Structures are given as structure tokens and as C-alpha cells.
Automatic annotation (TrEMBL):
Cofactor(s) recorded in Swiss-Prot or TrEMBL: pyridoxal 5'-phosphate
Full protein name: Cystathionine gamma-lyase
E.C. number: 4.4.1.1
Matching Gene3D superfamilies: Aspartate Aminotransferase, domain 1 (3.90.1150.10), Type I PLP-dependent aspartate aminotransferase-like (Major domain) (3.40.640.10)
């Protein structure tokens, strides 16, 4: 089996042909010439399939599951992928278990799911809370169809044991989906750990350049993939070929970005650990982090995000304003470092001074110096 770098550089590419480009250009087509029976045509109409998607989907499947065959379905955003995974596989009257500390749109999606007749149970990511919620939901009247995990969680960076929870869910007849946005396929492989679905916002680390919205669902189970793909075709939640092409092109540097960002994030986290005004510091790569042992077992790289809390809102705002190499922006996983006070959105249960810092690929010494200087300015 080839290494991650070799795989990332060549994932999803066609066989070499003389005089053809190494990376096929995006196919911009609403329809294709379609003689005969549409059922046997690989491409017929743009809402159903596109050659540019096929290359990217093949690449993602290879990265998420290098040891066993898998398939992926791409979407125009991470939320489109999440919504499709849930709504394509869970029927009214069935139950789902969702994280209470995951991405901030989950509460709104939960309201929508409940309005469609799904029964929703929730639990925080860390500890045994999800296992307890799964057991409690299993004893209820409605069968649990899906357990949704987000590990590391966003923005709090809590971890849960994918293998353990997958085994428990399967014993109760439930599927398991893992949001793999923060770790990326090179940092964590949920399918190898027992999950049925690996779902991610490709907007984040997978693309890594802050210029494309994209999402995907990957699985080793063709029946699940078929259901998700039918949902995409029916709802028209399709990505553009140019966006798909940009993400596929960017995968060639994914292994370099993941490694450099993890290295940089750990350096920044260590610098933050020395500051008395910083509390609640989280990064899975820190030996002192409460989930470090679990991270070592199930993660292959510890990610680019560091979260921490400054004394209050004003202190955090002074820190963000004083940063020079770190942009004040949302999202994470990009090559340029960003940070934000998450409380400004109102959807996360975090203190007013809570900061999520996404570390890019700049020189680590420069980032550490910038963060330390901004902390000094904020402290006054």
C-alpha cells in the first residue's frame, strides 16, 4: 500500500494517456449526448452525474478508505452533506442521537428533523454521555437508526471513542456517522474504526484554501451510498464542476498541509499553555489535554485547531485586533491562520472570551511570536 503523500497526489486521477493533461479539466455541461437507454449511460444530465465529480469522489473514497473499497458522494456544502446523510437514511418515526456540542447549525437542523417526524436524542461528546444516550434511546419506543458523532468536536475539541461507540450502536441496530471535518481523511479514518459513514465539510481542511464550499459523504456500504446519491439527485443538491475540480486539484498538497498545520498548532498551543490569562486550553496533541490518550489511539494527526478562553469579551477582542498574521474570520482548516471569538454567533455554549484559532502553514516561529505579542497587547 502506498503512503498518504503518494495517495493524495494521485488519488482519483485517470490512467496516464499520452498527450493528455495529468489533471483532467473541469467538465462544464448541463447535459451530455445521450443515445439509447439512459439507464446504462454513465453521463446523461448534469443533475445526476458529472465526470469532474467522479474524479473527486474516487479520490475522497481512496483517502477515507485506502484498505477497502469505498464510495463517496460530493455536495455543494458540508451542511448539504450532513442533511443528506440524515434525511436519506432516517425515516419519520425513527430516532437519531446527535451531539449537543457540535457544529452550531445542529440545533436548527434538529428543529427541522423533529418537524419531519424524526425523534431526536442529544448528548455531549466527551465521556460516556453518548453511550448513555444511545442506551436510553434504544429503550424508548422508536428504534435508533443513526448515532452521529463529531470528533474532535467543533469548537470545543472534545473527543469520543469511535470504535467503542460504533460497536455499541451496531449491537443495537443503529448506523454510525462521524463528522470528520476537523481531522480530514489523513488525520482520522472513521470507516476503519467501525463507522458506517464519514461525513465532512470539504470547505475546511480538505480544500484548505478558503475559496470553495463543498461537502461529502463516504461509506464502504454501497446500499447506503446509493440512498445518499438518490437524495442528491432528487433534491438537486449538486456541487459545481469548477468547485469540484478546485478541491481535487488541492488534494495533491493535503498531506503537506495536514502535517504542517498540526505541527504549527501544537507549537501555538504550547505557547498558550505558558500564559496565566489563558484558561480552558484544548488541542488533542497536547500531552496535558484530557483526550490526548484517545487522540493518540484513533487520530493520525491532531488537527489545526486550538481553542482557549481569555478572561472576558473585551480581552478576547483586544487579542484578535492585535494579531497581525492571524485573520479575524470564521471557518477553519485554511492555509492562512484565522481566529474568532465564537460567542459572537450565539450558537455555541462557550464563554464570552472563548477563541477558536485555526492554525495555517506559516512559519511556526512567526505565528508563535504574533500570538505572544497579541496576548501582551491584550493584557495591557
Amino acid at each position: 500500500m502506498t503512503g498518504d503523500g503518494t495517495r493524495a497526489v494521485r488519488a482519483g486521477l485517470p490512467a496516464v494517456e499520452p498527450y493528455q493533461p495529468p489533471m483532467p479539466p473541469p467538465v462544464l455541461a448541463a447535459h451530455f449526448h445521450l443515445p439509447g437507454d439512459p439507464a446504462v449511460a454513465p453521463f446523461g444530465y448534469g443533475r445526476e452525474n458529472n465526470p469532474t465529480w467522479v474524479g473527486l469522489e474516487r479520490a475522497i473514497a481512496e483517502l477515507e478508505s485506502p484498505a477497502e473499497p469505498a464510495e463517496a458522494v460530493v455536495f455543494p456544502s458540508g451542511m448539504a452533506a450532513i442533511s443528506a446523510a440524515v434525511l436519506a437514511l432516517v425515516k419519520p418515526g425513527e430516532a437519531v442521537v446527535l451531539p449537543t456540542d457540535g457544529y452550531q447549525l445542529w440545533p436548527k437542523l434538529r428543529e427541522r428533523l423533529e418537524s419531519f417526524g424524526l425523534l431526536v436524542h442529544t448528548a455531549p461528546t466527551s465521556g460516556d454521555a453518548q453511550l448513555a444516550a444511545l442506551e436510553s434511546a434504544h429503550r424508548a419506543a422508536a428504534p435508533v437508526r443513526l448515532l452521529w458523532l463529531e470528533t474532535p468536536s467543533n469548537p470545543g475539541l472534545d473527543l469520543c471513542d469511535i470504535a467503542r461507540l460504533s460497536a455499541a450502536a451496531h449491537a443495537r441496530g443503529a448506523l454510525v456517522a462521524v463528522d470528520n471535518s476537523l481531522a480530514t481523511p489523513l488525520g482520522q479514518r472513521p470507516l476503519q474504526l467501525g463507522a458506517d459513514l464519514s461525513v465532512a465539510s470539504g470547505t475546511k481542511g480538505l480544500n484548505g484554501h478558503g475559496d470553495v464550499l463543498l461537502g461529502y459523504v463516504a461509506s464502504r456500504q454501497p446500499a447506503l451510498v446509493d440512498e445518499v446519491r438518490r437524495w442528491r439527485t432528487t433534491t438537486g443538491a449538486i456541487p459545481g464542476p469548477m468547485e469540484s475540480w478546485l478541491v481535487h486539484r488541492g488534494l495533491a498538497t493535503l498531506h503537506l498541509r495536514v502535517a504542517r498545520q498540526a505541527e504549527n498548532a501544537l507549537a501555538v498551543a504550547r505557547a498558550l499553555a505558558d500564559r496565566p490569562e489563558v484558561t480552558g486550553l484544548r488541542h488533542p496533541g497536547l500531552p496535558t489535554d484530557r483526550d490526548h490518550a484517545l487522540a493518540v489511539r484513533q487520530m493520525r494527526a491532531f488537527g489545526c485547531v486550538v481553542s482557549f478562553t481569555l478572561p472576558d469579551l473585551a480581552h478576547a477582542e483586544r487579542f484578535l485586533t492585535a494579531l497581525e498574521l492571524v485573520d479575524d474570520a470564521t471557518s477553519f482548516g485554511g492555509v492562512r491562520s484565522t481566529a474568532e471569538r465564537r460567542g459572537r454567533w450565539g450558537g455555541d455554549a462557550v464563554p464570552a472570551g472563548f477563541v477558536r484559532l485555526s492554525v495555517g502553514v506559516e512559519d511556526p516561529a512567526d505565528l508563535v511570536a504574533d500570538v505572544r505579542r497579541a496576548l501582551d497587547v491584550a493584557r495591557g
